[in-house]
From TrEMBL:
MF-aspect GO terms: 3'-5'-RNA exonuclease activity; tRNA binding; tRNA nucleotidyltransferase activity
Species annotation: Acuticoccus mangrovi
UniProt keyword annotations, A-Z: Nucleotidyltransferase, RNA-binding, rRNA processing, Transferase, tRNA processing, tRNA-binding
Pfam families (UniProt xref): RNase_PH (PF01138), RNase_PH_C (PF03725)
Residues in Exoribonuclease phosphorolytic domain copies: 10-140, 159-223
Protein name: Ribonuclease PH
CDD domains in the cross-refs: RNase_PH_bact
Gene name of the record: rph
Subunit structure: Homohexameric ring arranged as a trimer of dimers.
Keyword tRNA processing set for record: yes
Family label: Belongs to the RNase PH family.
Reaction catalysis annotation: tRNA(n+1) + phosphate = tRNA(n) + a ribonucleoside 5'-diphosphate
Length: 237
């Protein structure tokens, strides 16, 4: 039994709320238990310099945590004058995950920037951000379609993410902070709606894990992401 009473394959309560930002072309407030992330998608009529004239668009992401997203106040990274390595790594992961399911030629020479701001953190902020970012991106593309800016399908699939780990020698899904900070193995999985892997991040925090243990984790992740994709479909329907 896990510390909060969940079964090994039981995720925290997950919700996806669209249209939470008045000005963004797409937005979603995603909640994985006590982890809450605001995702906004902004359309820009430009692309990075290396893409100009090529007929393709770009999707990028930025990630950040509000100062009181955790129990103690954190200094804003802007005040420190630079982003942490963790922040850079997570926002690159979000961007890669979204670009994996976008037809950039159908997007045209435009950029969609997805901002993921952590309002409250209790483990799994990056996986929640990816899952909510897809909804915000979908709504942004819907805005473009309504405006006649795109005609063909731009989103070619869903993408969602979940954390899994080995806690107390047992494989479990969707780790909160208590579990994440004590896990023997910690892993994040990003997968498409069709079940293809986009990225796997796995680390043994102590004793190395076995192939069988990894297989158990990816099985948990596959089932969990399938449930998240179903929720995405219901949210944007």
């Amino acid at each position: 039994m896990r510390h909060d009473g969940r079964a090994s394959d039981e995720m925290r309560a997950v919700s996806l709320e669209r249209g939470v930002s008045r000005y963004a072309e797409g937005s979603c407030l995603v909640k994985f238990g006590n982890t809450h992330v605001l995702c906004t998608a902004s359309l820009e009529e430009r692309v990075p310099p290396w893409l100009r004239g090529g007929g393709e668009g770009w999707v990028t992401a930025e990630y950040g945590m509000l100062p009181r997203a955790t129990k103690e106040r954190m200094r804003r990274e802007a005040s420190a004058g630079k982003q942490s390595g963790r922040t850079q790594e997570i926002q690159r992961l979000i961007g890669r995950s979204l670009r994996a399911i976008v037809d950039r030629r159908a997007l045209g020479e435009r950029q969609i920037s997805v901002d993921c701001d952590v309002l409250q953190a209790d483990g799994g902020t990056r996986t929640a951000a990816i899952t909510g970012a897809w909804v915000a991106l979908s709504d942004c593309i819907g805005y473009m379609r309504d405006a006649g800016m795109v005609t063909g399908p731009v989103l070619v699939d869903h993408v969602a993410a979940i954390s899994c780990g080995i806690v107390g020698s047992a494989p479990v899904i969707d780790l909160d902070y208590v579990e994440d900070s004590s896990a023997e193995t910690d892993a994040n999985f990003v997968m498409t709606g069709s079940g293809k892997l986009v990225e796997v991040q796995g680390t043994a925090e102590g004793e190395p894990f076995t192939r069988d243990e990894f297989n158990a984790l990816i099985d948990l992740a596959s089932d969990g992401i399938a449930r998240l994709v179903d929720l995405q479909k219901l949210t944007v329907a």
